[in-house]
Amino acid sequence: MKKNKFIPYVMMAALMPAAATISAQTATDTVSVKKVEGSERNVMLNASDASKPREIQIGLPSEDVNVYENGLPAVYSSAVHKLQYHWRSDASLGEVGLMSPSESAIRTGNIAYSVNSFSKLGQKEFKGVLNYRANHFGMQQFDLNVTGGIGNKWLYSGSVYQNFDPGSFDAKFDEYADRMQMYRAGLTRLFNDNKGKITLQYKYAYSRNTGNELNAAPFIYTGDGSIKEIPGFVPGLASYGPTSGEIEYMDVMDGKMKKANLRDLENNRSHEVALLTDYTFDGGLKWTLDMKYMNAPEANYVDFGGSTISELTEEDGYTLQDGTPYAGLVEGRRTWLHFGKVQNFLVTSELEKTFGRHQLRLGLNEWYYHLDYHSSSFQWTGSVQEYPEILTAPDGSRFRGFNELSPEYTVGSENKLALYLTDNWRISPKLNFYYGGRLEYYRMSADQIAHSRYSGFHIGDTAPDGEVITPANVTKDKLNYAATAQLTYNMTRRFGLTADATVATRFPRINEYAGTGPTEEQYNRVTIPLVRGGLFYKNDWIDLTSMVTYIAKTNNIDQQNLTKPGTSEGKTVLLIYDIQTLGWTTSAEIDPFKGVHLHALFTYQKPVYKNYSASVTFNDGTEMSVNANNMIVKEIPQVLVELDPSYNITKDLRLWLSFRYFGKTYANLQEALYFNGRWETFGGVNWTVNKHLDLGVSVVNFLNQKGAKGTISGSELITKDEAGKYAGCYMSGSYLRPFTVEFSASVKF
Does some domain include residue 49? Predict the structure, then answer.
């Protein structure tokens, strides 16, 4: 990998390509766990969250952020133990790349672009790097890595990461929106003339991410796909969280009422020990064995949700905490408190060797995951303003609806034992065939509560229907499989054809049993087929690829909170549905003249729901239904454009820009509400001052676009016919990351 290279490349995604860069500057004599097979990518350019890689979507709603560290998942699942609580891109990483969806399906069982990261292990000479980042909102980030050798056989590496980020607004109940500290230490033994090495690593991580809670804001929905700001509230610069953070909830485990502060409910701690081994035999056979044990005794976080915004008068009887009658805008707010304990033991072993025209890889996964998780929920009425007041209802309560909306519980484990094989077969100088297969034994055993939720729901309670709420065990033993085949044919020296097909299957995971879970009749295999085909052309100044893609997903399991329009009343339903996406993508890498590079990409796609319908009965007996069959999947745009120009002003001074256009997206299930297309923009200058110092300045959202994205709270049941009457209404949803200036410095010693 070249030093100081920061070109925003974009990979060809199946249907929703994503731009990417992880910048990993590493000296050529530094030993890392293994070389990255993919090119350098810019996956840390994330307009939504600077602490984790961009979600690289492939035409389907994202299941997880797939990040691998030293050949193993950085976190087994982000459903409870979030990726950004345990992994960051810092100075300890030597090399970072990507696995394609086809390769990921075979090696991991998931069809997705997967980030591959590898640790610096050291070298004989002492070296170090100190990185510093700051932004104009007050964020301060430091990360330090030192490596060196002890004699001729031993290497060491140590690193420290500290992040102090207040966010773009003051949350009041916590001084930081993101507080993260991470410590790593590693010792490596080289043996048999450096043909092999074995490394022992330890990592400790602590994080508290209260910014995760406050990812929504109120606005005026104009009805034409745009929004207006509510007077006195600027999305992204104003906090939509209460001032004190003091709350009261009912513990779903025992029904006891408890008080807490939201700040203290975001604590995450984890310990990890890893053993990494590789050896290259004289005949060219390479063997790797990577294993780790991770224990997270605290994996906690808080979610906020919303409903319909309405207006109260003093006659409605709501008061401020001091007893003053309240009149004005209110929103029914929903809060979920998640408490988790996670352990996993992961082992991956591979044999790799080239036989003539065949490059073979034989691998084995043994991945064990234990989850102890529950959540409690409550509702409250808040004023619509910066630092909303928690209002007192006419009955004297400030919090209500305890555990009515999808509180969760599951304790158990899942185990994946898989054997996989890939072969990259160069049939002739013009024809290449890549194929592979994976067979996985999957066992899941979990205690779950299948009973529908109600106000006051908790373990040990007697439900209105007379049933005692008691966890029951569900155990499944199944076989999952994946297969892929890719054919590339160079018709001429510059022009060729390519086609590939991949299919991956899985059964419901343990976290999908945390709610009411799939019933025995609903327990079905999830199948994801991916088919692509197109052409490519390359000459001295352009590298062009154009492909047509089809991807689908059957039996997708989802919990949906459905709100009765015009009210704050909500019910949770379990949905199982399919998605199909057909798309066309063209990508070009252009080097028109020395020092200038341009990546350009255009995607058109049509993701639609299949077999998507549900009904719900509200407290007054009103039954309402949602039918999204053949409608566009919410939050996924049909048109994407990416433009990434860069220019080397000198060999040490680089200017780069990144423009990402996301077309019109629907903000609810039935194509009633939508947001207009938007640009995500990045730009910066990187300067290599000398061999010891690098400086950089970058800007996020330099066009200063303001607006909303994602879904609109409480809008799930609004139909197309009703859409017109919501023009000019107050609503809430996610917002665009505000204009941010960042500064960086890297000192090498």
Answer: yes
